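Quick illustration, no need to memorize.
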Amino acid sequence: MQSELECLFEQIWNETYPDFPLQSEVKFYPNRRFRFDFLEPRSKVAIEINGGNYAQGRHTRASALESEYEKMLLAASCGYTYIILTYNMIENDGEKGFLATIEGIIRSKISGRDFKE
């Protein structure tokens, strides 16, 4: 089940970048329960939404961080680009252009060209 922040991200993404549909809750590694919150499969860009950073959420506890880092390592070993977004990054995207940067990374990976902002 998606969090409110994941739903907000997905809504913003789908409205802004319809040419790059994302899959949600994608299992990516055999014999492990690890899932990506979102994946653009052609580019192998995975997006993780970490919404509880300021509320002592899951991603702030040592054991959860250890698991998160293991997930990142396994994702990299499978050729995925792993991007983490926080609540503030999604809420303040208009000012910073984080989603446009992700869209540029996806475009560059699909085209095989280096990403230039």
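The first helix runs from residue 4 to 16.
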